[in-house]
Amino acid sequence: MPKGYWIARVNVDDPEIYKRYVAGAAPAFEKYGAKFLVRGGATFPMEGTARARNVVIEFPSAQAAQDCWNSPEYQAARLHRLPVSMNDLVIVEGLPD
Question: What is the architecture of the domain spanning 4-41+51-93?
Answer without folding.
Answer: 2-Layer Sandwich (3.30)
